[in-house]
Amino acid sequence: MRNAEPVSIRRGDYRAFDFVVERVALLFELTPTLARVSSTLSLRRHVSAASADAAALRLNGEHIKLIEVRIDGAVIDAARYQLDETQLTIANFPNSASIEIITEFDPSANLALEGLYLTNGTFCTQCEAEGFRRITYFPDRPDVLSEFTVTVRADQSAFPVLLSNGNLVSSRMLDGGRHEAVWHDPHKKPAYLFALVAGNIDKLTDQFVTQSGRNVLLEIYSTTANLPRCHWAMQCLIASMKWDEIAYGREYDLDRFMIYAADDFNMGAMENKGLNIFNSRYLLADKDTATDSDFQLVDAIVAHEYFHNWSGNRVTCRDWFQLSLKEGFTVFREQQYSAFRGSPAVVRIEETAFMQSRQFAQDAGPMAHPIRPDEYEAIDNFYTVTVYEKGAEVIRMMHTLLGETAYRKGSDLYFSRHDGTAATCDDFVAAMESASGVDLSQFKRWYSQAGTPRIAATGEYNAAAKRYTLTLKQQVPATPNQAEKLPMVIPVSVALVDATGEQYNRLLVLNDAAQQFTFEGVQQAPVPSLLRAFSAPVLLEFDYSDDALAMLATKDSDGVVRWQAMRTLFLRVFDDAAAVSTRDVFHATAGQLLADRQTDPALIAHLLTFPTHNELADRQLHINATELAERRHSAVAALATHDHNAILTRYAIERSALASKPYSADAQSVAHRALSATLLALANFGSSPAAQNTALAQWRGADNLTDMISAMTALRDQPCAARETMYRSFHDQWQNDLSMLNRWFLLESSAQRGDAAAFAQSLLAHPKFDPKNPNRVRAVVHAFSDLNWSGLHASDGSGYEFVASQIIHFDQQNPSLASRFCDAFSRWHKFEPTARAQQRAALVRILESTSLSANVSEIISKTLKAGEL
At what angle do helices 756-764 and 798-811 cross, to 10 degrees? Predict the structure, then answer.
């Protein structure tokens, strides 16, 4: 069993730190196996911290060795302080003093990749949320903001580049071949935004002139080999800086902005002040090593991390319960930027699909929580799709309800009120209320209530009165620790469409359990187009006829409504009791879409992409994994057979639009490749040799990675000669390229095969598998647990055993990584008895393993508990 029972941290227990840490001076003496850190803090007690308990100074610290403590220059005796595994406590600390703390640790032994660690000969940091305490003893909490000066010393030949936050003050050579760099950040920040990079790395440079005329030096650091893949990220950085000035009036505030690409990194990217650190997976891109979606992802993540300079850094969060204050807001800003840079309709469909497939599942599972949680055991577990993506939807709803002008006034007011402070979600809402004059007190339930609201909609047309009445009823389901819910404020964007194409558009605000809305002057019985642009993160039910769904899927002016209508038709066909007429309408609708040359091909690609196994499972109260897979395969295969010729014809049209043209990432070319990839996958659903040869021909003729990967994906689950040729060649060509070989690992681990768990296990023994690289581990373990439905749910239980073993193993070195694999069991209690028992046994085995981290313990224990209620 785990060493100690986990401790819950509660939002209601918040108390400000007793001291102000005005200045921090850090000195790093670095060698590969020993980091010696001298930390000098200038402290003064808060006037309000007057209780007897406040007499002590308490600093967080883990996995480090304390060497010495000085107060105002005098070394203090060990009897003066208490030291345990997580905290340094100094009793009777003066009201104002300087404390110097010297610590040591081995950065090469830091496999958790939190704090300061050495990877591939380069020092790197990751301090959010609680990594700084692995460097030195410090009040490691987001509401302690300090001015940092950092001195870094290391061997000049091994570590010629020394980086930290802020502006470079000085650099010089030292004795013994060592050198130092001194960095100063004039902006006060919490410790989680600290960063340090030291290594033999190269850089790409550019500059940006701000709207006030300041010159900012832009630098992206990586290995020399990867530097050519950084040009796209630099373009994205400049574009995001320009956009933030225009859209939000936010200007950059330091002399330079730096990014470092790290191969070994737990997170996607980190917004450290002035020195962003990126997982190289989300920064490097060129046509040979990145797909179209990778280019878009790099653009979005570079923008996201840059936008944090204001929404997260200049204004940070008071405590980690307020995480959505910076993340939900910044994700929304990122989404606005992505819509500006691409197709707004396609971008919104992708955001909606992610919410419905990922966030709705979390809302319905054992880890359901509001965007501002009330308690946690491990904060790493709450870097979730709820806090981030649902948090963004809450900001979007405020934008919708208030309008662009009032919303912009509110964001300006928020930044001006709270610049340089640690704020709360309530502070953000208060700024919006002040700027708009709108009372958002009921709307704030989105911050406190978990779960996905459900709206039942019905409509009635009065032909004599030319009136249409729409009735909406809302219900928020019970979630763990929240049985009773109150009505939410839900913006519902609606259009009524009649046979002539006439539309009546309105934004409805549902704020009661049930409400009626009337539309006057409606000349014909309409079809309601509901929740346009996914105006709220809710599940909406309306009893459409099949023909009405077909009309919406092919004719509606809103991309999300078209996408939702087509998915609803598929779900009806997926039901094995579906009428033949429904299947006929579904096939005919798909045929219309295949023939549609007016709609953006990227939108058509989404309309012809159908729910995954996981999404289908989330709709069912009782799951039989084998039956579900068979029914999904039957529904898609029937369409592929029925529209086989139309699929291949449209595929040829899309490919001809790209023929004889060099690769380009322009929107039109990306759209043609997206639709051709979808069609190639559909054509190969029936294991047709001709379709397999078409995939092989595309792969052989590809001049870009997008076309190569789409061909390999189309044949991923088919044991044919064409697949063997592609996969073997790809492996041999890219076996020495980290990011590219990860793609091969992911495709192989997610492939549906009879011995999937055993094959995944064999991938762990591959000579190029590196258990210390999070991206590679995810490419095998997470690909299997999240994408390989038949492998995970193999009837012999081997899939569950494999995932459980990997969770236990990787939890010992990297709990943050291991905890991400636990979602595989979130639906365990919904399965038929044999699979349910197998999954329960795997969960118990994990929970009873030795030295289980709080990260994994919290998720597994809640998963078990939810299934046994």
Answer: 30
Q: What is the pTM of this model?
A: 0.98
How far is residue 18's CA from residue 144's CA, in Å, rounded to a whole number? 10
What's 791-850 look like in SS3?
HHCCCCCHHHHHHHHHHHHHHCCCHHHHHCCHHHHCCHHHECHHHHHHHHHHHHHHHCCC
Taking a C-beta distance cutoff of 8 angstroms, is the pair 254, 274 a contact? Answer: yes
Runs of H (alpha helix) within 263-403: 292-307, 323-341, 344-354, 360-363, 391-402
Cis peptide before 16 (omega within 30 of 0): no
* Structure confidence by residue, pLDDT tens digits, 207-244: 999 999 999 999 999 999 999 999 999 999 999 999 99
Q: Rounded to the nearest 5°, which phi and psi values hold at 698? A: -65, -40
Is the pLDDT at 31 greater than 50, yes or no? Answer: yes
Q: What is the Cα–Cα distance from 211 to 76, expressed in whole angstroms?
A: 51
Alpha helices by DSSP H, listed for 384-424, are 391-402, 404-418
CA separation, residue 368 to residues 6, 443, 478 (Å): 19, 19, 10
Question: For 611-663, how does the pLDDT look when each residue is reduced to its tens digit (9 = 90+)?
Answer: 999 999 999 999 999 999 999 999 999 999 999 999 999 999 999 999 989 99
Q: Which helix (H) or strand (E) holds 236?
A: helix 231-248
Q: What is the number of alpha carbons within 13 Å of residue 435 lying toward its C-beta?
A: 24
Contacts of 703 (CB under 8 A, 6+ apart): 287, 662, 663
Closest CA to 99 of 81, 117, 114, 86: 81
Amino acid identity, residue 561? V
Burial of 222 by CB count in 10 Å (0-12 exposed, 13-18 middle, 19+ buried)?
Answer: buried
Task: Name the burial class of residue 156, with classes exposed (0-12), middle (13-18) and buried (19+) by CB atoms within 10 angstroms of its CB.
Answer: middle
User: 853: closest CA among 803, 814, 824?
Assistant: 814
Q: What is the DSSP letter of 341?
A: H
- Count the residues in the chain: 869
- Measured CA to CA in angstroms, residue 728 lies from 687, 761, 815 at distances of 20, 19, 33
Domains and CATH numbers, the chain: 1-200 (2.60.40.1730), 735-869 (1.25.50.10)
Cα distances (Å, whole numbers) of residue 340 to 326, 507, 521, 533: 21, 23, 36, 15
Catalytic residue among 100, 305, 393, 654: 305
How does pLDDT run across 354-407, given as a tens digit for each residue?
999 999 999 999 999 999 999 999 999 999 999 999 999 999 999 999 999 999
Residues facing 153 on adjacent strands = 29, 180
**Pick from 237, 202, 191: nearest CA to 217:** 237
DSSP state of 332: H
Distance CA(517)–CA(322), nearest Å, equals: 36
Nearest alpha-carbon partner for 367 in 799, 19, 823: 823
Residue 248 has pLDDT above 70, yes or no: yes
Ramachandran sector of residue 99 (left: φ over 0; alpha: ψ -120 to 50; beta: rest): beta
Joined together, the tokens standing for residue 521 give 């002057």
Is residue 748 flagged as an active site residue? no
Torsion angle defined by CA atoms of residues 7, 11, 16 and 17, in that order, rounded to the nearest 10 degrees:
20
Q: Which helix (H) or strand (E) holds 654?
A: helix 644-658
Nearest to 843 by CA among 835, 63, 794: 835
- Give the burial string for 590-612 (b: 16+ CB within 10 Å, else e): beebbeeeebbbbbbbbbbbbbe
